[in-house]
Amino acid sequence: MIKGVRQGGNGKALSYLDTLVVPIIENTPHEEDLRDSMAEAMKKYPDAAGILVRRHGPDWEKAKTQAECLDYLFEISVKMKLAGLPTLLN
Prior knowledge:
Elements: E1 24-25, H1 35-44, E2 52-53, H2 60-82
Parallel strand pairs: 1-2
């Protein structure tokens, strides 16, 4: 599965020998207050494919399920586009 992760989210794909680094920042009472720590993490870890916010949102099992659902929907959307099918209902 590491081959599906890309540096910076859209760069070179990681390989078996690479180390996946996902920074974790502390949560804040208001999402807009995450801006500075998020920017700092992005500067410190420019190759990270994502950043986790500690104690924010669902537990990891629910987040994994959400990610898998989104991945499936995106894959189906691409296949529909390639087949010339609409992805939106009129």
